[in-house]
Amino acid sequence: KAGVTQTPRYLIKTRGQQVTLSCSPISGHRSVSWYQQTPGQGLQFLFEYFSETQRNKGNFPGRFSGRQFSNSRSEMNVSTLELGDSALYLCASSIQQGADGGYTFGSGTRLTVV
Amino acid sequence: GIQVEQSPPDLILQEGANSTLRCNFSDSVNNLQWFHQNPWGQLINLFYIPSGTKQNGRLSATTVATERYSLLYISSSQTTDSGVYFCAVDRWNNNDMRFGAGTRLTVKP
Question: Residues with Cβ < 8 Å from A54, sequence gap 6 or more?
Fold first, then answer.
């Protein structure tokens, strides 16, 4: 079966711009979670969506937002980009919360803000 | 929030050696997973193991939930095992995974 697909793989943006990242989960998976990975802070939870509803949110400013569509595909948006937003953004999908062995990550989008 | 500590932070082995990676967590959890991140950034799920012991080939993992730690064993290591190993926990089983800082493993031929 196809895995979790994240697009684009690489992105370069300028400070102040906004960016939208996409995540297509494994077919049948309804939960999508987003994470930010940086060398200084490690892997940090951004938010989780299930059936088009945000159920959990990490400790990130309001510039970080997301949504989920009826086909479970999810997008995250970062507005007014800052240099510190440069990171690897990973999404993970699962059938439901806490599914046994069902937590699968995509390859990530590497965002560079200049 | 829950704290996750992994040790050692770095580990260098010769091919064929065995190793044990440790993950301590500060509170009870309903979900614990081990991941391997390859040099290209891909996170691969190794084990879902909130308690008990599991084995998959040369890898095995044990979680002692009452004592709040988990161990990942790698036997007969290969160069392809190199990368960063992460432990992640989810206290309420709601897909809000908290990750440790990882153990960077380098296996030399």
Answer: A47, A48, A66, A68
Distance between CA atoms of residues A50 and A33, nearest Å: 9
* pLDDT tens figures, B29-54: 988 999 999 988 889 999 999 999 99
**Given CB atoms, is A54 within the 8 Å cutoff of chain B?**
no
Closest CA in chain B for residue A31:
B95
Q: How far apart are CA B81 and CA B91, in angstroms?
A: 28
pLDDT tens for residues A14-26? 999 999 999 999 9
C-alpha B13/C-alpha B75 separation (Å) is: 11
Peptide bond into B50 cis (omega under 30): no
**Residue A88, pLDDT above cutoff 70:** yes
The whole-angstrom separation of Cα A55 and Cα A32 is 10
Q: Does the beta carbon of A60 lie under 8 angstroms from any beta carbon of chain B?
A: no
CA-closest candidate to residue B62, choices B34, B100, B97: B34
The H or E element containing residue A105 is: strand A104-105
